[in-house]
Design brief:
The complex is a heterodimer of chains A (206) and B (391). Chain A is an alpha+beta fold and 206 residues long. Chain A is 45% helix and 17% strand. Chain A has a three-stranded mixed sheet. With 391 residues, chain B is mainly alpha-helical. Chain B has one domain (40-375). Chain B is 66% helix and 1% strand. Chain B has 14 helices and two strands. In chain B, β1 and β2 (206-207) form a beta hairpin. Chain B is globular, with a radius of gyration of 23 Å. Classes of the chains: A alpha+beta (206), B mainly alpha (391).
Chain lengths: 206, 391
Amino acid sequence: MFGEGILKGLAETARNFAGSFVSPERLTTVQYPEERCEPIEESRDFPFLVYDGSDWEAGLRCVACQICEKECPPKCIYIEKSVDKKPDYIGKPQIYPKRFDIDISVCMSCQICVEVCPFEAIKMDTEFELSTTDRFGGLLYDRKELAKSNEYYHTIHPTEATEVDARLAVEKAKAEAKAKAAAEAAAAKAAAAAVAAKPAGGEIKA
Amino acid sequence: MIKNADQIFVILQHWIMSLFPSALQPAVGALLAVVTIICVFPALFAIAVLLERKGLGRMQNRYGPNRVGPLGIFQPVADGIKSLTKEDIVPASADAVVHFLAPVFLVVVVFMGYAVLPMGRNMTLVNMDSGLLFFFAMGASTELSVFMAGWSSRNKYSLLGAMRAVAQMISYEVPLLLASLVVVMMAGSMNLGRIVEVQNQYSWGLPHWFIFTPWGFAAFLMFAIATTAESNRSPFDLPEGESELVAGYFTEYSGFKFALFFLGEYVGMLSVSGLGTTLFLGGWSAPFSFLTWVPSWIWFFSKVMLSICVFIWLRGTLPRMRQDQLMNFAWKFVLPLSLLNVFVAALWRFLGEGYARWGVCSAILLVAYVVMAKVGMSREHFGPRSYRYAE
């Protein structure tokens, strides 16, 4: 009422002013290009394609099923299927994307492509220093620019990548077990057939 | 030697003048002084902007600009180049002529005020007998420029900002004049140089500045409040309240015209600081009698920069007022107190020398302050909100 609040406020700002010179821990600003924050595991910006192994082209997990292309709300994904097939991580021959383009100037980072992908092939990146002088071509990424190794995925989202790896391993084991069971069943069937044929012959003989 | 340092600019001016034929000398002298003012105050403007941005940053525990040059000291240069190279957009439905004239008029008028400010011993451009009146005439003309800008832009935010600005400036013009009137009553002159001369006396080593008297102190506070409002500074920055009005009356200005408005605002702030210094802080006189050997212009400019720092400090501290609070404050608090202060100053004069007048005048002002604060500024409606019609 008598202006004592103003004096109190002035004292507070004066304390901040002086304090920022005396105690540097008051200044919370991270001076960006020279200093950087710790990378945040939960952060995301634009999608990338995961590949296994060392050859990005051979190791791409994507099978060009085009679910992400259809689900993408701003329609920033463009996929062309291949005619031939290449083996996937299980060894099963699969179609692969001949073209896979993402226009990150259109992408809205919603992560729906990641949610719908049944093959764990597309994940969200955390790279944010993407500025370019070419706003059309420079922001339209083809599959080579999008392809990033599983190791890189482990460095940016370690928890999530471990879960994904475990899931893929389980699936692979299941597939192998199934293949094995199928092989065994086939073998057993063949053996049974052989056994059945023999007694039959024997019977004939007998 | 010290005397030369004090008068160095005057000596320099006379030396340059002596190079010209005598018929041209007055014109050359005036031109020199004008050019100096037009160069020095924009430079001070750059310094003030940098001080403000760094100081406000520190008050908010930030660094402030620190990229351009060492410690960011070239930031004003970068800002200037940026605003010069930006596109100058005039709205299609704006009144183009008035839209162009508004910032030019503002800058011209603001610089005119410097003509009568004594910036040092013998350093007044025009030693006008009615200098104070001239200064206030020029200061009040900025309102016209503000309204020209708001009106010609044909934008609701501009117009609202301009209307707020005009209402505010006219409201605070009255206490501003009344606060300065006290000084005129005491000094017996409207000549700013004469006002400084009156304050430039010392007893026991201390100066006779008007701020060191009860009426002078009260007038200085009211003058400071009114000038803050006049220069549209926080907490009275409603005309450009960016949370309500985008940028107020200069919403539709870009590029160099915007820079001119910015310049006009800060140069205006510097000029009212100069006036406050002249009226209450003894102008170019030294704060202690043993410091009178320091050149007078150093004192003037350091007092002005100190006032700017106080402006910045206030801006970093106070939130923006509401329009009704602003008006209430002007008409219900500052104006009655400044009217009373005129009476107190007269009393001081007629009580004569002695200690009695100190007690009487201080007591009257203090009692008035307490009563005014209790009555005028009481917040009896302040409390839990009640909804009468919403039951």
